[in-house]
Amino acid sequence: MHIRRSNFIHFSMSHKNIFLSLTYLLLCACSGKVTQQQAIVIDLMDAQDSIPYSVFVDSIETIPLETTDSCLIGYIQDIAATDDRFFILDQKQQTVWVFDRQGNFINRIGKRGNGPGEYVRISQIEYDKRKQMIVLLVWNRLMYYTPDGRYIKSEELPMGAADFKLLPDRSLILSRSGETGDDAGIYYVDSTRTVYRHLISRKPNHRVPMNTHWELYSYEDTVCFMSPLFDNFVYHYYGDSCTLAYPFVMKPDLHRDYKQTDEVSLQYFEDFIRTVYVENRNWIIASYWSAKHDLRIMLFDKKGKNVFIGKEMTNDVNYRDWGGWTSACEHNQLVTFDDSNDSDENPTIQILHLK
After folding, report:
1. Contact at 8 Å (CB) between 250 and 42?
2. Which domains does the chain have, with CATH numbers?
3. Which residues of the chain are under the pLDDT cut of 50?
4. C-alpha R_g of the chain
5. Residue 120: how many other CB atoms lie within 10 Å
């Protein structure tokens, strides 16, 4: 988790005013009102010591990634997985490495620079399974490549974002959840990239800047997301509608408002703040941290509506270290990774086949 001042590019005042005016005209909140009886209230202080993998994991597939002279991964930010390939977003080296499903290195996508097909900094990646292209989000631009690395095209977006998901009709869901201004939240952008609407806003007393690597999940053409910090409602966007799916309310309540971002201090951060959100067909996982109470993990069984709260998560299935999460979640799976103990070796991917 990183709590920091946002380093995203800011709009000029004239563009920002135009942007906000259009936003209010196109404002369309996701549907769903919650009564006190419908809310799923969870007390993060009521936690067991550990949540074992065996509660939700059926089996684990382990895939070591090949290390070559041409490929040494710096730090995995996220992974896009297909039936035959892994696309690895390397935050440290700002590149996308491509491996087959056996872990053999194939190639890399694009390179840093200002020329055609080049980029400065990648925010997120997504695999377009219909067009069979890997798509890079570079703040306010999408860049399209073939899986073998050939550059196809770029297209401008009406706003910058930290995360995105492609919809079947070529429209987009964009996330600016980590921002702290009036334009923070989740957006829909149509296929022409000119019409957009604000789906979920961020409350003005929740202005804590965050970088959680991703805020959006997708499976079976459904895009899933939690409302911006410190709210925890889960919404699903499917077809052309956005609905409230799981109205989580986390306790304890906030001790204070966060209206001024310069007042935020990690050293004395008393409230719980969400650091990871993971969702697939059957499960939701979210982690929360505070300086006073340390880590809490919430595991939610979507079928049985069971909730588990733990101070940590332990792997009692294959007993490897509990790895880093990614946003790859199709086929009732979750994709994680373990860094190697040897800094000269690439990480190992673990595919969690879930119950």
Report:
1. yes
2. 2-354 (2.120.10.30)
3. 1-28
4. 20
5. 10
